[in-house]
Known about the structure:
mainly alpha, 0% strand, rod-shaped
Amino acid sequence: MKGPLKWPLGDNLSRRVVTLQAWSYVFVGAASLLLTALLVAFPTLLGNDTPPVRWIVGAVLSVSVLLMLCGVVPYVWSVVLSYRRA
């Protein structure tokens, strides 16, 4: 890709760059799905008299942050690879 529309990818759009981009989208999508499930289930969790609500929310948020970090690493690496000269 060349021209002003190449952002965030550079000129080197190889198969590896596309694969890394795809994996980053999968990880970010999984984190979004997990956070959406928490958002839907949160009123039910607050309505019940279950004491481990704090632990459930903390675990879901921890897993979603881990998934987001797993998505950021391949995204940044794909951008770095795309700007290298082949």
